[in-house]
Write a structure and sequence with these properties.
The complex is a heterodimer of chains A (about 475) and B (about 200).
Chain A lengths: L1 E2 L2 E2 L5 E2 L1 H10 L2 H6 L1 E2 L7 E2 L4 H6 L11 E2 L2 H11 L1 H10 L3 E6 L5 H5 L5 E4 L7 H4 L4 H9 L11 H8 L8 E7 L3 H11 L5 E6 L11 E3 L5 E3 H22 L5 H27 L7 H13 L4 H20 L10 E6 L6 H8 L2 E7 L15 H9 L8 H15 L3 E6 L4 H17 L4 E5 L8 H20 L1
Chain B lengths: L3 E7 L3 E8 L4 E9 L4 H16 L6 E7 L11 E2 L2 H12 L5 E5 L4 E6 L5 E6 L8 H10 L6 H7 L12 H13 L4 H16 L2
Parallel strand pairs in B: 1-4, 4-5
Antiparallel strand pairs in B: 1-2, 2-3, 6-7, 7-8
Helix pairs in contact in B: 3-5, 4-6
Classes of the chains: A alpha/beta (about 475), B alpha/beta (about 200).
Chain lengths: ~475, ~200
């Protein structure tokens, strides 16, 4: 892709040194043009952020990763890695900060409806260890606070609230409880015992029905009773009132409608990226960058306007590669659907080096990639999307979503990467495998990421290699 | 004519090599050595040993496959494959009726399930514990002053049942030493160990 006279090199995955070298080659004019917090006193170019490529280099796992070498990828990574800095600058710019917990993708649509509010996921702090080599610090704090290895890595969110060394403390935390992750409910409960103001809302268990009486079909094809939608809608109305009471900022239906349109704009772009990255051969985008793009759906990486721009820029780059039939991975790589987000980013690189490519994903927040209905009342529309959350119903529903992806992207295998300590992983892997193999004659592999120790990486590689060999042998059969 | 093919398994504990004459479908040489600290060098010397035993040169070898934990190390491989694929292919070719393969490797154990066509249907591996691995075998064999072949022979001569409560390599080692201190016969300990190992590997 050519952008303002800067031409991308031939697509390949490069190490941090080369990635940084390309970063230095980008003309200042371009770097200065990519700014966050537009229209505020704190507008800044995150591309110039030393935090992205210099300060952090010595203390991160970035040095063991390989990156897509495009300008769009550099912009994507810069936006991702500069999030904490942006949150602090947002505070300076007078923005009100809401921390959303556990709903994954719905509360931020409400929060960003008001121009003075930004929202982020402190849960996202569980990603901090993914890019930091010195991750033991945050995990140790959580251990010391009583949340040990029996909890998933999301427990580092508690650590970030205790040591206050990462993101700025939000003025309001909005936490979903009920049927979603019990690990994180424990984390939220502990956070609520600090001086944080927490507003709770209930995300009920999704009971699916075949009845067509007093029920509604949701975007993902399942039906739920109307009273369930009404209940969640009431919860959102209460949250909007809580925001007004606590921050003094009113979110109107018109503002919410506009915010839904923005969310859908991003989701449309992401759907397009996913279709190309997962469905087209040769694969035009590495799995790692594709996963990061998907995560932007949650909260726009703390800047809605720029977050959407970043993703649309990646989309243009991917379109350009597809139109020129240029891929970044060998054509015969095994097409594998990936289940659960990857807490050790190196594994995505290893997976591709061993001959795999991601063809479909279910990273626990597929409802955040789904278009929000625009033909109904905005709070009801959000309630309908919240009820599509893959984590609040049966594992068989999640398996159905996975099967739909397999069909869509013609996946040749399913790789379930369990997250250590995450309670849902203990049981659902077997159910997903069973359901997938009822519908498709494809292999399913369960692995645990991150591995307990780096010394296990060899065994992990053998598993992934063997899995890919099985898939390729089946092609010959 | 390059009638010979070589297969080298660079395992975590040992490097094993075989040389086959494809024109006669016959195994003509094999070689074995401890993996040591430089499996690449060991693999090279295994390769040389195979050639020497068969009295041929590299020019006579048409294809080399490497497998095992160190499969990527040698620079003379024509094909690299996991031991899981190699086991399946070997069993499919030599004993096609077999549908389950158990590999007690140096650092991990694997169970491989084949379908009716000899293709891998599924496989499982241990990943976080040495219980039930070849390393465990070695540790217990050493305490019983035998080797991995001798321990099986010892077990066959057991007279009484004893008990090893832990399959953790570290704890089991202490437990076996304790049993020996109480004059428990080595044969009984070996038999109990084999039973425990079987339990560990049950799938």
């Amino acid at each position: 892709m050519i952008y303002k006279n800067f031409k991308d090199k031939h697509p390949e995955k490069v190490d941090l040194n080369e990635f940084s070298r390309i970063h230095r080659e980008i003309p200042d004019e371009i770097k200065k043009g990519f700014t966050a917090l537009k229209g505020t006193t704190e507008e800044y170019s995150y591309m110039a952020s030393p935090a992205c490529f210099s300060e952090l280099e010595g203390d991160t796992r970035l040095s063991s990763l390989k990156f897509d070498n495009s300008l769009a990828s550099i912009r994507l990574w810069s936006m991702l890695l500069s999030e904490e800095q942006r949150l602090h600058k947002s505070r300076k710019a007078g923005k009100r900060i809401i921390g959303a917990m556990k709903d994954l993708g719905t509360i931020p649509v409400i929060a960003y409806a008001h121009p003075e509010i930004i929202s982020f996921y402190p849960d996202g702090a569980w990603w901090i260890p993914c890019v930091m080599e010195m991750n033991a610090g945050l995990l140790k704090i959580a251990d010391g606070a009583g949340l040990g290895e029996e909890y998933c890595p999301a427990r580092v969110a508690l650590s970030a609230f205790l040591n206050r060394a990462h993101f700025p403390m939000p003025e309001l935390l909005i936490g979903a409880v009920g049927s979603c992750c019990d690990d994180f409910s424990a984390v939220m409960s502990r956070i609520s015992r600090t001086d944080m103001k927490v507003s709770w809302w209930e995300l009920p268990y999704r009971r699916e029905t075949d009845s067509k009486i007093n029920t509604t079909e949701l975007s993902t094809g399942i039906r739920v009773e109307n009273h369930l939608i009404d209940f969640v809608e009431e919860q959102f109305k209460t949250i909007i009132q809580e925001i007004k009471n606590h921050l003094g900022l009113e979110i109107t239906d018109e503002m919410l409608t506009e915010s839904i349109k923005n969310a859908n704009r991003l989701r449309k772009s992401l759907a397009n990226i996913r279709d190309m990255a997962y469905g087209i051969t040769p694969a035009p985008l590495p799995s790692l960058e594709a996963q990061i793009c998907e995560m932007f759906a949650l909260h726009y990486c703390s800047d809605m306007e720029e977050g959407i721009d970043v993703i649309e820029f990646v989309e243009q780059m991917v379109i350009d590669r597809v139109e020129n039939n240029i891929g970044i991975l060998p054509e015969d790589n095994a097409k594998i659907l990936w289940v659960n987000p990857v807490a050790d980013l190196r594994i995505m690189n290893i997976f591709e080096d061993l001959g795999g490519r991601v063809a479909g994903s279910e990273y626990l927040f597929s409802h955040s990639l789904t278009q929000i209905p625009e033909d109904t009342h905005p709070t009801k529309a959000l309630a309908m999307i919240a009820l599509c959350d893959p984590m609040i119903g049966s594992s068989r529903y999640r398996a159905k979503l996975i099967c739909d992806e397999i069909e869509k992207y013609d996946s040749e295998g399913v790789l379930i990467s369990d997250i250590p300590g995450a309670s849902h992983c203990a049981t659902e892997g077997h159910i997903i495998k069973e359901e997938v193999q009822k519908r498709f004659d494809i292999p399913v592999l369960n692995i645990t990421i991150p591995p307990l120790a780096d010394s296990s990486l060899g065994q992990l590689s053998t598993r992934i290699s063997a899995f890919i060999e099985i898939i390729k042998a089946r092609r010959e059969k | 004519m390059k009638n010979f093919v070589v297969g080298i398994d660079l395992g975590s504990r040992a490097v094993k090599g075989t040389l086959i004459d494809t024109s006669k479908k016959k195994l003509v040489a094999r070689s074995f050595a401890d993996a040591g600290t430089n499996p690449k060098c060991v693999a090279e010397s295994i390769y040389s040993d195979l050639l020497e035993k068969a009295r041929i040169t590299k020019c006579d070898v048409g294809f080399v496959t490497t497998t095992g934990y160190g499969r990527y190390s040698p620079d003379f491989s024509d094909k690299i494959a996991t031991e899981i694929t190699c086991h399946a292919l070997g069993v499919k070719t030599l004993i096609p009726d077999v549908k389950t393969i158990i590999d007690i490797g140096g650092q991990d154990s694997k169970a491989i399930f084949l379908d009716d066509h000899g293709q891998i249907k599924d496989f499982i591996m241990n990943d976080r514990c040495a219980a039930g691995t070849g390393r465990f075998f070695e540790v217990v064999s050493k305490i019983l002053e035998t080797d991995s072949h001798g321990i099986a022979e010892l077990a066959m001569k057991a007279g009484n049942q004893t008990e090893i409560s832990s399959m953790c390599v570290v704890f089991a080692e202490s437990e076996v030493i304790g049993l020996l201190a109480k004059d428990t016969p080595r044969e009984d300990i070996a038999a109990e160990f084999m039973l425990q190992l079987q339990e560990e590997l049950q799938v």
